[in-house]
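Sharing a chain and its predicted structure for anyone who wants a worked example. Both blocks are below, sequence first, tokens second.
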Amino acid sequence: MSDKVKVLIVDDSSIIRKVIEKQLTSYNIEVVGRAGDGVEAVELFKTTNPDIVTLDITMPEMDGLQVLEEIIKVNNSVKVMVITAMSDKATGLKAIKLGAKSFLGKPFTEEKLKETFEKLI
């Protein structure tokens, strides 16, 4: 049994997915999946059962808030970190009400990402 934290990275930008993954490599994590849209994210979530999900809000097929609702139905103890350019308070509050554990606005610094991630683990 691995004691690595399993992470699913969800963002429609492949660049942002790579940045998040690269910045979190110093942690004891295993990236169990990467999704570029909401539908793919929900399917990957069901098959990989991650401990933490980094989740963008604005995505094709299904937005991040819909994804959040779906994955919380599957596993309500998953820790979700919303990372989005939509950094308005209403979106953040809605994400938290739906079950997200933290909210990080884009653009973000490596320090801010790590600080937010550390609070989750």
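Comments welcome. The mean pLDDT is 93.
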